[in-house]
Amino acid sequence: MKFHVLTLFPEIPRAFFESSIMAKAVQKGIIAYDLVNIRDFALDKHKTCDDSPYGGGAGMVMMTTPLASALNSVKPKRKRVIYVTPSGKKFTQNMAYELSRESDLVLICGRYEGIDQRIIDSYVDDEISIGDYVLSSGEVAATVIIDAVYRLIDGVIASESLEEESFSDGLLEYPQYTRPEEFLEQKVPDILLSGHHKNIRAWRLKQRLAKTLRMRPDLIAKARDNGKLTKEAEKMIEEITRIGEH
Ligand code: SAM
Hints:
- This protein is α/β, with parallel strands linked by helices.
- The protein has ten helices and nine strands.
- It folds into two domains: 2-157, 3-Layer(aba) Sandwich (Alpha/beta knot); 164-244, tRNA(m1g37)methyltransferase, domain 2 (Trp Operon Repressor, Chain A, Orthogonal Bundle), CATH 1.10.1270.
- The strands form three sheets. Strands 2-1-6-5-7 form a five-stranded parallel beta sheet, sandwiched between helices. A two-stranded antiparallel ribbon has the order 3-4.
- Residues 84-87, 109-111, 113-114, 129-131, 133-138, 141 line the site of S-adenosylmethionine (SAM).
- S-adenosylmethionine is lined by residues 84-87, 109-111, 113-114, 129-131, 133-138, 141.
């Protein structure tokens, strides 16, 4: 997959593409990226990319022409274009899975008060928000989406790591422990030291259900509606709620 990031500050996403697991995925040729500096397409000698809004009001708006030229410069022609914006659809793990099937993703990072509506109407396929808060710019939001998407692509990380993590089947993850066996007078739960895989699996499922009930009861309702809760899980939920374990 190739990510094309249109930005006024390429150094922000560049740090991500050049680090850790992403850097390895790029080296292996699984991921490619292109950081397109919108300022390179500005028309005046000051490289101006913003202008005041029609109708008045606070702040500036990103200009149409440099952004349109930057979008037109991206090859191939068939590509999915995303504008990251607080007024978009809220980003979820399911959206990350869906986007991970694309071959090319173009992400437009906004600044100031955002971009001209006519760019959205002419070029953008999806408007995506990473949450109900306002960031000062789109680079961090675009990087969040890229991070959630690229790790789902075959060969980036082991598929077993994806199977039981949060949201994979509608539930949050179970608690994780590593050495030492005792830390700050707290012992690792005995069951995890037992080597009894069947019991460990059941314990982990119960922990996932208890945590999801406590933190995100809306996800339990959704998992139930989607037929993702097994009879075993429903029985555990009954136990957890009866004894108030969560
Ligand atoms: N005037 C805009 C509004 O009220 O919705 C906010 C603009 S914000 C200061 C500047 C840029 O940051 C946006 O164009 C967008 O690209 C990015 N941004 C801010 N918050 C975001 C969020 N929650 N999700 C995705 N992008 C966001």
